[in-house]
Write a structure and sequence with these properties.
The chain has 23 helices and 15 strands. The protein is an alpha+beta fold and 491 residues long. Keywords: Magnesium, Metal-binding, Nucleotide-binding, Nucleotidyltransferase, Transferase, tRNA processing.
Length: 491
């Protein structure tokens, strides 16, 4: 790709920009008529050269925000200026949304990452301050003319991630760019250059000045990539993960000379990739299509990555030569909740991911299929709306290279899913409730709403899970038996 003449490269980009070419030429002509430069810049240009039609249209211009506003007021159906302080004016006409930013020549306060916003007068200088060379290419409009002062095209062809300015300076200006490097490695399949890796390693501690919310957003985008593992490895290898997700490098447990346990870090990355492969439509032998987990699913992927983070704290070497991680799922659930809260994930994500981590070992009590219907009911009820994700997480947790054992585990889980389907069909487990409601319980026992009624309700729910659907009369008899037992305990 890098050996093609600029004219042909320009033509290629234009072909992939065909759906929005009218917008580009129209806006370019409007700005040129007022004596201003306008260029499509960054991700849209990169994506066009990669053969993708960009969804966002980002421009840079020599016009001031006020001049941009005046032009957009004539062109757009609606405009907005929330980014005016940073030189950005937005507009929408029909289905097309654009954001246009005045050339920037910011100076960064490297103790806070907050830039002193300064407008520039040069497209090349504006491109120089961008994060990576592959995002520092532009199409000057309305011609269009391909502009690539920092070799982004060659890097795109080589799939190399470099910075326009020296990497140390770029990351000092904005440490979040180091997280973006890992994200682009995951999203685009690029390799970070030696200079970028060295700068990330040297400057990893500076990530501490970035807000948890910004780090969370970059981590989520990385995990939602088709293949996040290379990006995660880069975070760990450079020390960035030790700053923002220390539980991940902590999984690199020292493997003893007898190899009495598998590499937990490598295992976790494999589980993540296997979980991703299971997203989407799925069938179970003897059952047919089952409820899918549409991908990419952030909750599933976080749970797969973090499911074993309780192991370092629970590892014990046994006298017989083995190694154990007793209750690592419970410890891991607590650590997961703590870390995701620190990263400012929404409460529902924190709750769901930590619950999956807590439940990920439950299946291993199933063995050869000897679970009672009561155990199946509890498995379904405890998983609740997370059941489909739990199916995928549990299946992904098998990373054995022993083909016979792997086949046996898969067949065992197939059996469990068939059991669950049968019990669900017979008993409507998704809506399982005691066979007496709160009013009936209160009437039967002659009590009023309060903690005692709550205890009685909980007991009947446990009875329902153990015994299955037995009918209101049997439930009432059990309630009275339990009530008599409570009365005796008080005497």
């Amino acid at each position: 790709m890098s050996e093609l003449p600029y004219a042909e490269l320009q033509a290629r980009a234009v072909r992939h920009l065909a759906p929005v070419l009218g917008v580009l030429t129209d806006l370019g002509a409007r700005f040129a008529a007022q004596g201003h430069e306008l260029a499509l810049v960054g991700g849209p240009v990169r994506d066009a050269l990669l053969g993708r039609t960009p969804s966002d249209l980002d421009f840079t211009t020599s016009a001031s925000p006020e001049q941009t506003q005046a032009i957009l007021d004539e062109w757009a159906d609606a405009t907005w200026d929330m980014g005016r302080a940073f030189g950005t004016i937005g507009g929408q006409r029909g289905p097309d949304t654009v954001e246009i930013t005045t050339y920037r020549a910011d100076v960064y306060d490297r103790t806070s990452r907050k830039p002193e916003v300064m407008f520039g007068d040069s497209l090349v200088d504006d491109l120089r301050r961008r994060d990576f060379t592959v995002n520092a290419m532009a199409l000057r409009l309305p011609e269009p003319e391909f502009v690539d002062p920092f070799g982004g095209l060659a890097d795109l062809a080589s799939r190399i991630l470099r910075t326009p300015a020296p990497a140390v300076e770029s990351f000092a200006d904005d440490p979040l760019r180091m997280m973006r490097a890992a994200r682009f490695v995951a999203q685009l399949g690029f390799t970070a250059s030696a200079e970028v890796v060295a700068a990330m390693t040297a400057m990893a501690p500076s990530l501490e000045m970035i807000s948890a919310e910004r780090i969370r957003d970059e981590l989520s985008k990385l995990l939602l990539a088709d293949h996040p593992t290379p990006g995660l490895r880069l975070l760990v290898d450079t020390g960035l993960a030790a700053v923002m997700l220390p539980e991940l490098p902590a999984l690199q447990l020292e493997v003893d000379e007898h190899h009495r346990h598998k590499d937990v870090y490598e295992h976790s990355l494999t589980v993540l990739e296997q979980a991703i492969a299971l997203e989407g439509p799925r069938q179970v032998p003897g059952l047919g299509p089952v409820e899918p987990v549409p991908g990419p699913d952030l909750v599933l992927r976080l749970a797969a990555l973090l499911h074993d983070i309780g192991k370092p704290a629970t590892r014990r070497f046994e006298s017989g030569g083995g190694v154990s991680f007793h209750h690592h799922e419970m410890v891991g659930a607590k650590l997961t909740k703590k870390r995701l809260k620190a990263l400012r994930y929404p409460g529902d994500i924190v709750k769901d991911v930590s619950r999956l981590v807590e439940l990920h070992l439950r299946f291993h009590g199933y063995g050869g299929g000897e679970w009672t219907d009561s155990a199946v009911r509890r498995y379904v009820t405890d998983a609740g709306p997370l059941l489909s994700r739990l199916h995928l997480l549990t299946r992904s947790d098998s990373t054995t290279r022993n083909k016979r054992r792997a086949a046996a585990l898969a067949a065992s889980y197939d059996s469990l899913e068939r059991r669950i389907a049968a019990v669900q069909e017979a008993e409507e487990l998704a809506a399982v409730r005691p066979e007496l409601d709160g009013n009936q319980i209160a009437e039967t026992l002659g009590i009023t709403p309060g903690p005692l009624l709550g205890r009685a309700y909980k007991h009947l729910l446990e009875f329902r899970l153990d015994a299955g659907p037995v009918g209101p009369d049997a439930a009432r008899q059990e309630l009275l038996r339990w009530w008599a037992q409570q009365q005796q305990a008080q005497d």
